[in-house]
Design a protein that fits this description.
homodimer, 676 residues, alpha+beta, Butyryl-Coa Dehydrogenase, subunit A, domain 1, Butyryl-CoA Dehydrogenase, subunit A, domain 2, Butyryl-CoA Dehydrogenase, subunit A, domain 3, 3 domains, six-stranded mixed β-sheet, three-stranded antiparallel β-sheet, 24 helices
Chain lengths: 676, 676
């Protein structure tokens, strides 16, 4: 029995009784699943630590897999707070350091059901980044011990992406050495901040700073909003929960209205700017490091929240598709596993390939971000920051779009049971869906990347050298290799194909913009008139980067031939799927011909048939325990139907039926219409 | 003041105070919105009746727009039952006949929050269709007076689309003149039937009929499942609610397990087949009429549930996009309305065009279905039924796919507020999303259409004439017209372009299939190996039919030039958007050239700018009252922000905060880890 199987036996709940239909899938596997897990974890040591953390937390925290599905918002919210306190105590008990290797895996282990996400994830880092040493010394210990709970109040009801449009004001009153904070309109109210609805006692509030009658733009202020005695709102503060959302029931996103709320002068976070007693404003130091913080938040949220949702959805949908049988494929035989249908393979396997692509991309981004961080830290060299910023904006949009579409495709591919909350898929889908908006609206992100690409294109045309990820913009046009049966699965060929498209789209968008400006259209109008095209160009760039990064990751696996083989098939499928989803872009200028496209299509269908055979081991390798999937139809043992029944019986909507229904119905019939 | 405005003033809630940003949009309108509403309603008389119904029901039924968003499943469920009883009484009071013109509008007025949907929508029609006269006389009066509540139990836990795979059995026992019903496995349990979880006292259960040791296939049986005294399950019956779903909180989808449940012989619905006392089985009459019933259910659910969701989502998203302002478009000016951004226009306006396309298609399908019904009824002529069946399967899949994607695109285009349940968009999206599965899984539907297309192609090749909708398969290849600036917006040109693509895809799929079979691959394997292509072919056919139907509807508007003008723009946008979303399909064989595609793209962007100007009146024309939209951000008055705040304050999650939170948090910190 392999290490893998020993682990499985210990960790998974109902392992004893494996559905034979899923068992067969594992027996036919031609690669070592455990090795692939190590690759995904970035090494066997990480796998070991991760499983240790999951094992420890499982004992106390994870009881019934399905319990969250039957809780209301109140219960979900309280559960996350229990979790966060528990984790804090447990980490102390286990001697796991806050920045130690174990802490990285805690979030995954509790499925993101983690209380005070803004307090821990944004409020504290924000004070650390924007506060002076004295401010850090005052506020961080209070926060870490949960004596205060902080939120982060930037987004307003009427203002999101465009920060200069924020309406909240902080006017300095030199006579009292205070700032007076106001939200003059409904649209100026802070809206959406997490932890605000119920938890927060304090918030970092972003406001337009006015001193000596002059506006100095947006600045951060620490404002106490609720009493530390009885948690009631302080005078001038209107605060509450914004109501239900599409998912994230457990988070108390809130609203905040401040009317003439006075805070002491020292509550302005002043690492980068200072107001003197008489109201003189001055900046100090460089705020460039803030960009880096924002970049890292994006990289992390994609890595820990968005991509895992796609990996989980693939796990559930693919496992279900080998135990679900439907219709005769071969006349007279038993109904076929639905994954044996080409149409089902075409729905799911490209999502699986996307999951792997996104994973490797995310690892690549993290590596690059760490390099940039070291450059800044050791040499004060910020030169790679614009490239990192542009990469992460575009790729944030690109990956989240892919994952949103992928999760929902997986959900729909499971038919009716995929619509049942108990499958785990609806919550994955509705939760992922938020990621097109949070941490930067995707269209805005793509347009920022487009702006960077244009700058680079202009730089290239004036002979300057370009950062590595965009260096291709300065290369002369690439000639098409002939796509043939032999090289359609050659990574060099398809990377080149994507590069060509990206280059063409960017240059066309640039010339579209240029020709309008030359014909006298104002710059801002021309930009808007070209923006659909600009988004396409940025997407083309992101697609190229993603395929290229996947191929580079593949190269690293040469020493493990069996892993290399299977990952290459995924990489090929990802690349070909992207071409076939945008055939027009490649046929347009003849870079790919009709006959080559036919060849690509044929190879694609062959890949689907190949990967179908190892699809279950490929999702097993993600190594999500049943507790993390919380899916009646996607558990490791493949016992979908009996688990659906078991869970449905626990539904709180069940016990209340019986007589009450008849009484209610009868009462309605005797009531007059007007009383109904 | 126009009739329209008078109506608006009376019907809409907060009409007095109109957001000036939305007001401007209406003032600039160049067509008569009221006239367009009449077109959509199929005549001014219908509009009049509809508004009358909405006005009457509004008085009693619709109180707070947002109330449903704060109810739990129990409350939602009870509310629908109140509604259905109220409607029954009100219709009697108002003397509205059950099959009268008013009844058609009742569902729309209550936003589909209608109790006992299966009882009224399927159980009763099913008995009427499949029961003998004696059975109808016995069961229908009991059902209509709600003395019994019926469900429709066909789908099983492990079996959906493929009816022959159903496992439930009904074995005839001649000694007692009873059927013995059994579900031998968990996967044989009935799963998903609406009204089953809590309401139903009876169900039409589909089971494999066995008499004299022989299986005669699936037949319907009326089975009592709960006591008429105290509503508790009868012996041998396990019944309950299947738990939460992605939406449809108000529906009690249920499960049902029958173990040796005996029902009298006369409970088998016997219009088309009969079992004699000694167990002799015989069929009688033709069941073809059943196909027609199934077709009509599909047509109706798309028309009343799916398309309206897209129209509502467009209404909400477009209204919000003219009051939401974001970023400077022109430097130094006020932040721009987000609908002024080309990228936002590109997200929303094609969905609006799709809404109109789907509406006209749905009207066309209904008209055709009525013709077929008359042919059957008056002449016993079933010859058009296969065409109608093929059309409705493919188009069911095609329209639901379009509407699902469209609603979600609208939701995402509203950013954070579109993620708030209070916007009304999440429930529209999650509810619509179910339609890819119910009433026939979409991939299966497309493949059924493909099968029909192949039969027609073969018939054409052997010289037979084809039904009108597929007649193009017998035409010789169409030569491409040159797409130029002049004719890119010529409906003949784009209808031809779509027809060419459909024809090509169908023929290619046929030859793919054929060449495999000729090379010795078994028929069923070849079919599966071609199924991705087959689905594309069926989609191509549906796209062509939809564009053609839109153009035909447009022709009917020639006598109203201003309406014709604006609807033509929508039709053009729909057609061009489809081409640009599948450029590869048109470039592939050079039917559209690179230069023509550029021209199409340019015209497309021009259309976006044109339609943007009249977007608000175009959604106003759908004439959804605020009560039906139930959206904080999409009401007629454009007061999104103040309404969001007003509703959020009512959230039941708000009052409970205060001290309890601090107490809870403190209690956690003093508890030992193991007790958390």
């Amino acid at each position: 029995m392999s290490w893998w199987n020993v682990y499985r036996t210990n960790v998974n709940m109902a392992f004893k009784d494996i559905n034979p239909d899923i068992d067969t899938e594992r027996k036919g596997c031609n690669f070592d699943v455990e090795k692939l897990t190590h690759v995904l974890d970035g090494g066997a040591d990480n796998t070991h630590i991760r499983r240790k953390v999951e094992g420890v937390l499982k004992q106390d925290l994870l009881t019934n897999l399905e319990e969250l599905y039957f809780m209301n918002r109140e219960e979900r919210y309280l559960r996350t707070i229990r979790n966060v306190v528990y984790i804090k105590k447990k980490m102390e008990e286990m001697n796991w350091a806050e920045d130690g290797p174990e802490s990285e895996y805690v979030f995954r282990a509790v499925k993101g059901e983690f209380g005070f996400p803004l307090h821990n994830g944004v409020f504290i880092p924000c004070i650390n980044a924007l506060g002076t040493d004295a401010q850090i010394a005052k506020w961080i210990p209070l926060s870490k011990s949960y004596q205060i709970i902080g939120s982060y109040a930037q987004t307003e009801m009427g203002h999101g992406t465009y920060l200069r449009g924020l309406e909240t004001t902080a006017v300095y009153d030199a006579s009292t050495q205070e700032f007076v904070i106001n939200m003059p309109t409904v649209s100026a109210m802070k809206w959406w901040p997490g932890d605000m609805g119920r938890s927060a006692t304090h918030a970092v509030v972003f406001a337009q700073l006015y001193t000596q009658g002059k506006c100095h733009g947006m600045h951060p202020f620490i404002v106490q909003i609720r009493s530390l005695e009885d948690h009631s709102p302080l005078p001038g503060v209107m605060v509450g929960d914004i109501g239900p959302k599409m998912a994230f029931e457990q988070v108390d996103n809130g609203y905040l209205m401040l009317s003439d709320v006075r805070i002491p002068k020292e509550n302005m976070l002043s690492r980068y700017s200072k107001v003197s007693d008489d109201g003189m404003y001055r900046k100090r130091g460089s705020e460039r490091m803030n960009y880096f913080t924002m970049v890292m938040v994006r990289v992390n949220v994609v890595a820990t929240e968005v991509i895992p949702s796609l990996l989980k959805a693939c796990t559930i949908a693919i496992r279900y598709s080998v135990i679900r049988r439907q219709s005769e494929l071969k006349p007279g035989e038993k109904e076929a596993k639905i994954l044996d249908y080409q149409t089902q393979q075409k729905k799911l396997l490209p999502q699986l390939a996307t999951g792997y692509a996104a994973h490797f991309l995310s690892v690549g981004l993290k590596t690059f971000a760490n390099q940039v961080y070291m450059q800044i830290k050791t040499k004060g060299d910020f030169s790679s920051l614009p490239e990192l910023h542009a990469l992460t904006t575009g790729l944030k949009a690109f990956i989240t779009d892919s994952c949103i579409a992928g999760v929902e495709e997986c959900r729909k591919a499971c038919g009716g049971h995929g619509y049942s909350v108990l499958s785990g898929l609806p919550s994955l889908s509705t939760r992922t869906s938020a990621s097109c908006t949070y941490e930067g609206e995707n269209t805005v992100m793509f347009l920022q990347t487009a702006r960077f690409l244009f700058k680079c294109l202009a730089a290239a045309q004036s002979g300057q050298s370009l950062p590595p990820s965009v260096a291709y913009l300065s290369e002369s046009d690439i000639k098409s290799r002939t796509v043939s049966k032999k090289n359609v699965l050659n990574p060099d060929t398809y990377v080149e194909t994507y590069r060509h498209r990206a280059c063409r789209l960017i240059k066309e968008a640039a010339s579209m913009l240029q020709s309008q400006i030359q014909s006298g259209v104002e710059q801002y109008v021309a930009w808007n008139n070209s923006s659909v095209k600009l988004v396409q160009a940025a997407e083309g760039h992101c697609y190229y980067i993603t395929v290229k990064t996947f191929v580079e990751a593949l190269e690293q696996l040469r020493h493990e031939p069996e892993i290399h083989r299977i990952v290459k098939q995924l990489c090929d499928l990802y690349a070909l799927h992207g071409i076939l989803s945008h055939t027009g872009d490649f046929l347009y200028d003849g870079f790919v011909t009709k006959e080559q496209m036919d060849q690509i299509n044929q190879s694609y269908l062959e890949l689907l048939a190949l990967l179908r055979k190892e699809a279950v081991p490929l999702v097993d390798a993600f190594d999500y325990a049943d507790e993390q999937l919380a899916s009646a139809i996607g558990c490791y043992d493949g016992q979908a139907y009996s688990r659906l029944l078991e869970w449905a019986k626990k539904s709180p909507d069940n016990p209340k039926v019986k007589e009450t229904f008849k009484q209610y119905l009868n009462s309605l019939f005797v009531s007059p219409v007007s009383k109904l």
